[in-house]
Amino acid sequence: MDRFLYKKSAGITALSASMTEFMYKKHAHKEYAIGVTLRGIQHYHIDGSLQLSHQNGVMLFNPEQVHDGMAHDKSGLDYVMLYIDPQMLIEGAGKKDIVRKPCSSNFKRAR
After folding, report:
1. Which residues pair with 18 in a beta bridge?
2. Structure confidence at residue 96 (pLDDT)
3. Which of 14, 93, 94, 103 is deepest in the core (most CB within 10 A)?
4. Averaged pLDDT, 34-62
């Protein structure tokens, strides 16, 4: 059974998810997304490469970073995510130069 529970408080959204056959199509978030795989393997593509997040693995997606997601196999997947607005990090740090939003027009990948 696929289950997605969202809670929002103080500008941070928390997601608790369990999935077996569900899969996210390519998408991006406006926020930083920080997550932990609790059970199973999270299978996703990001920046042109396949990533696998095993149990206790940490995932980090920058704002506007395109990715997909699914359970790696039929045993399913449980994970949690926090979605944090970049402005909250800027305000918390007190310095604009510490936390920067990525600018796709100026971004070049190292080869």
Report:
1. 3, 78
2. 62
3. 14
4. 96
